[in-house]
Amino acid sequence: MNSVGLEEVLAWLREAAARIEEQKEYLTQLDSAIGDADHGINMNRGFKAALERLEANPPEDIAAALKSVAMALIGKVGGASGPLYGTMFMEMAKAIDGKERLEAADVAAAFRAGIDGIKARGKAEEGDKTMIDALEPAYAALQEAVASGAGVGEAIAAAADAAARGMEATIPLVARKGRASYLGERSAGHQDPGATSSHLLLAAAAEAWGS
Amino acid sequence: MNSVGLEEVLAWLREAAARIEEQKEYLTQLDSAIGDADHGINMNRGFKAALERLEANPPEDIAAALKSVAMALIGKVGGASGPLYGTMFMEMAKAIDGKERLEAADVAAAFRAGIDGIKARGKAEEGDKTMIDALEPAYAALQEAVASGAGVGEAIAAAADAAARGMEATIPLVARKGRASYLGERSAGHQDPGATSSHLLLAAAAEAWGS
Amino acid sequence: MKKLINNVDDVVRDELEGIQLAHPHDVKVSLDPYYIYRADAPVQGKVAIVSGGGSGHEPMHGGFVGMGMLDAACPGEVFTSPTPDQMLEATKAVSSGAGVLHIVKNYTGDVLNFEMAADMARDEGIEVESVVIDDDVAVQDSLYTAGRRGVGATVLAEKICGAAAEEGRPLSEVADLCRKVNDNARSMGMALTSCTVPAAGKPTFELGEDEMEIGIGIHGEPGRERMKVKSAAEVVEILAGAILDDGVIGSGDNVLAFVNSMGGTPLIELYIVYRDLHRFLEGRGVTITRNLIGPYITSLEMQGVSITLLKLDDELTRLWDAPVKTPGMRWGA
Amino acid sequence: MKKLINNVDDVVRDELEGIQLAHPHDVKVSLDPYYIYRADAPVQGKVAIVSGGGSGHEPMHGGFVGMGMLDAACPGEVFTSPTPDQMLEATKAVSSGAGVLHIVKNYTGDVLNFEMAADMARDEGIEVESVVIDDDVAVQDSLYTAGRRGVGATVLAEKICGAAAEEGRPLSEVADLCRKVNDNARSMGMALTSCTVPAAGKPTFELGEDEMEIGIGIHGEPGRERMKVKSAAEVVEILAGAILDDGVIGSGDNVLAFVNSMGGTPLIELYIVYRDLHRFLEGRGVTITRNLIGPYITSLEMQGVSITLLKLDDELTRLWDAPVKTPGMRWGA
Ligand SMILES: Nc1ncnc2c1ncn2[C@@H]1O[C@H](COP(=O)(O)OP(=O)(O)O)[C@@H](O)[C@H]1O
Ligand SMILES: Nc1ncnc2c1ncn2[C@@H]1O[C@H](COP(=O)(O)OP(=O)(O)O)[C@@H](O)[C@H]1O
Ligand SMILES: [Mg+2]
Ligand SMILES: [Mg+2]
Ligand SMILES: [Mg+2]
Ligand SMILES: [Mg+2]
To answer: Are the CB atoms for B88 and B77 separated by under 8 Å?
Structure first.
């Protein structure tokens, strides 16, 4: 795939929602080790609501779709991940406002805006053991693929792979942000749930846009 | 032994306290099946206090000794058995007030007064699955022995044997008084803890006055 | 056994010391024998109200000592009736000459010990009336048995009689009111978990991971029936259904609905139970006009709930609403 | 998992319906979005106070809505921060034009969601100040981390700011008071057992039969350290010792001592802890002049306790003593 339109974006969101539902217990289990055992429940509630919203009010364009997801996440997820992912989708929507189709470069720009939104709100940096640790390497890989002329499908696959590595790399880290930070040294040895859900979102895109 | 004096009464009380201490867990275990798992703890607390009282203020006569035990039981046992056994000792004290030595007939009269005290207070009848089911047959045997001219030792031994049979006969009964009554039919199949402690008291007397 | 205690033998004494330190302006505590009494006792001209029972049911009874409720409470060891000397001393400490009401829960131990205490107090010239509370419909009532247990209605009787005594009503009237509360109140409880008596060190009974015990008492006594765990709405139907089946409360009545935690059940669940109770009673034509929701008569850390319904008339409602100022129940003051 | 609930997804809604049915004269409940507000809101000329957070901590915050405390509370799902739409609607419902104070516990989720809500409310012309409570000394504070959690001081801040707002003080002063309470209060908690989030269905963490967790949060988050169970006096020394070590409270200070049950610990144990706390503080030259003992900021059915100390001056004492009339805290009214 060299560019994605509304259909593909919706396919991604459906795939993401399905994976989150499937991995709900796993995400919650990760959160129970170093958090409060709700990340999977939160994300699933939010993405279910997002799909319902998209069905009830079919979006006119990609920006509208992303904005609708943002509103659902902000209104339904709660916790730390709700406003963070909500902000991410909102910023992505703004970044591609008016576009009918997204080239790989557009996807990268939107992704950058989304990550910046999360960082502005949550003040986390790489290495703090948060979703940022999956998202930043994913962006770097995406950007590199774009620079070397890759299409959307190829670029997002590279991003998903990088996200997986970033996610795994959270295991030894000591958390400095979010609920896991209360554990101090005891947070080391566990994979961050938010980094895991971030990887899920990217893997869903790679699946949806893969061919 | 044909009659008992203060020394023999004190010997009985010491023997009774020792047996209760020894059987504390057993009594509590019986109470946990159909009550609230405290009969042995309660009785032991009371008889320990009684012995301490008797040592701290050596009684002048038998009535004073029995009264002192009554006060200790009333003040320290709590629960159902405290006021019941307390009343029994109080009524026995009244019945032999002023006597230096007790013949078998005096013992029977005191025992009758004691049982009547328990019944007046607790309103239980034979067959209700309480201490009365050990005490009434014991009195009947005691009275019969007295009528046939037995001495104190012989008479009390007969009473203790009858108490053992009465205690065992509580097993199939459905409780109508005390905490076990809340269990209804579920109380059948268990030996009554109060009937068991009543037997202990009589067996202690038979031992103390046996020769 | 995991509890925030020091020595198992010192649980009641340590607690009483804590109560004394926490509420010095409201209550005084006697440590020998154990009783808790109003700091301003005896209140001249007022009928005094004394209650008591085993410990482990906090805030009942010690937490209900104060203006508008009890004048004194006698705590026994955990789940063991207190002794007559405690009740006698407490009675003497709060008696102002206007008479003393003993509110007694119907357990053989409590009844007998209070009886002896009342006799002793009368011997010392104090006028005493005793009222025995027996509101637990889980137990079959009969002339030939120990009868029903006293549970949730005790809390309501203590509040209502306390208000009547505060108004200066005479002993006979306060005692009549207590009987009226008892006659018009019915309760039933259930447990999701057992409790552990500190001195025993292990749970009084064992319940499977999917079982509950219906018709539980407040001492970890086994209940009427063991069954699989059900929803809050179904539990309400069983408990409130048994209460209505008892026949005292029915369609057209106004009631005070008391949803009580056995100790370990949190408030969030009590409100769910209350919601379901409201629905259930509405369907049966019974109107809740007052309510009390929280842990008031507990069984240590037991998880579970009891429901008490008290049929209200204007007098009971007015007395319920009257000011009360105790560590465990407070309004209007 | 054994709980008195119906459907795990309906826990918060069922509870809110119960609160509405139980306290119709005191509070109103909005079910879409979820928030609880004073029945007489908006109170003309008064600064409004809004708080909120995950459910499962009852009575906090919904139980603290009423005269002298909160104007509105926003409950999230169990242990999950509520969302900005709830906070916005609640803010609008209680705003009388005198400004609104958001009292926010320092959890990333609560802070971020309240931030978004405050922005939206300001967009609609409502003056909003936010104060973040972070009193938990179990967590190392640092500029580079999420910082300390907000726990017991929240309850005290809501009471004290509520009294100040009731006196008609302006938003800036009420917010300053909130910061003052936060600056002068420190807390630490521990758990004997885990709790079970209804939607998760199993305990958040496992503790051995002889273990306790020190420095626990209010969401079943693991604590600072796991250790063998200790006596109440030793637990007090650990918790209150850590609070004093933090340096804000020390010899010569008068404090409000708040001994809080995490939900499943019964009152009898709280009074034992209070006794030991009183002794400990006495030994360290700290005088308890006010206290609060009971389950006020809970973690579902978790067994455990938290201690909060607030350094008092005349102003804070007077505001603490001022009348309050809410379902969960009430005196003088
Ligand atoms: N300040 C932050 N910046 C970025 N991500 C964060 C931040 N705080 C928390 N997170 C992410 O949120 C995840 C937890 O989300 P969730 O469990 O839904 O919320 P909560 O912690 O409120 O229960 C963490 O695993 C982490 O990846
Ligand atoms: N009304 C009664 N009359 C005679 N004995 C009784 C009565 N009620 C209870 N008992 C006796 O008391 C025993 C229980 O004593 P105990 O366990 O010490 O008191 P509690 O039941 O208050 O815990 C029973 O086993 C029974 O024998
Ligand atoms: Mg979480
Ligand atoms: Mg017993
Ligand atoms: Mg007992
Ligand atoms: Mg959460």
So the answer is: no
- Asked if residue C50 and residue C196 are part of one domain, the reply reads no
What does the H/E/C string look like for D253-283?
Answer: CEEEEEEEECCCCCHHHHHHHHHHHHHHHHH
Q: Is A40 in the pocket of ligand 1 (CB under 6 A)?
A: no
Query: Is residue D2 situated within a structural domain?
Result: no
A90, A67 Cβ separation under 8 angstroms: yes
C301 alpha carbon to ligand 2 midpoint, in Å? 26
List, for chain A, all residue ranges whose pLDDT scores fall below the cut of 70. 211
Containing H/E element for A41?
A: helix A39-56
C177-235 pLDDT, tens digit per residue, is 999 999 999 999 999 999 999 988 888 888 999 999 999 989 877 777 899 999 999 99
Q: Do A75 and D84 touch (CB under 8 A)?
A: yes
Q: What are the strands, taking DSSP E only, across chain A?
A: 3-4, 102-103
Give, for A187, the enclosing helix (H) or strand (E): none
Q: Measured at the alpha carbon of residue A156, what is the angle toward residues A150 and A160, in degrees to the nearest 5?
A: 135
Check whether residue C50 and residue C172 sit in a common domain: yes
3-state secondary structure of A67: helix
The answer to whether residue C67 sits within a structural domain is yes
CB contact under 8 A, B177 and C221: no
Q: CATH number, domain at D88? A: 3.40.50.10440
Query: D201 with D125, same domain?
Result: no
Domain range list for chain B: 3-208
Containing A128, the helix (H) or strand (E) segment is none
Domain limits at C144? 12-184+322-331
* B167 CB-near residues (< 8 Å, 6+ apart): B133, B134, B191, B192, B195, B196, B198, B199
Which domain CATH number covers C268?
Answer: 3.30.1180.20
Q: Verify that C198 and C159 share a domain, yes or no.
A: no
Helix and strand numbers, DSSP H then E, in chain C: 8, 14
Phi and psi (nearest 5°) for B4?
Answer: -125, 145
* Minimum distance, in Å, between the CA of residue A72 and any CA atom of chain D: 10
Shared domain for D154 and D214, answered yes or no, is no
In whole angstroms, give the CA distance from residue D235 to residue B58.
Answer: 45
DSSP state, D67? B
Q: What share of chain C is helix, strand, coil (3-state, %, to 5)?
A: 35, 25, 40
**List of residues 6+ apart from A91 with CB closer than 8 A:** A110, A113, A114, A116, A117
For the question of an ipTM over 0.90, the answer is: yes
Biggest CA-to-CA distance, chain B: 48
C112 and C192 housed in the same domain? no
CA-based nearest residue in chain A for residue D144: A176
Residue C2 included in any domain: no
Ligand 2 centroid to residue D19 C-alpha, Å: 43
Give the residue among B6, C277, D111 at the shortest CA–CA distance from A78: D111
Q: 10 Å Cβ neighbour count for B48?
A: 15
Residue C266 to residue D293, Cβ atoms within 8 A: no
As a whole number of angstroms, the distance between CA B172 and CA A189 comes to: 61
Mutate to test the pocket of ligand 2, among B84, B119, B132, B200 (most ligand atoms within 8 A of CB): B84
Asked if C140 and C217 sit in the same domain, the reply is no
Q: Is the pLDDT at D55 greater than 80, yes or no?
A: yes
Task: Write down the pTM of the prediction.
Answer: 0.94
d(CA D39, CA D26): 5
pLDDT single digits (tens) D189-230: 999 999 999 988 989 888 999 999 999 989 877 788 899 999
Does D138 share its domain with D284? no
Domain total in chain C: 2
Catalytic residue selected from C57, C61, C102, C278 = C57
Does the residue C6 lie in any domain?
Answer: no
Give, using CA atoms, the residue closest to atom 3 of ligand 1.
A122
The domain defined by A3-208 folds into 1.25.40
D219 is catalytic: yes
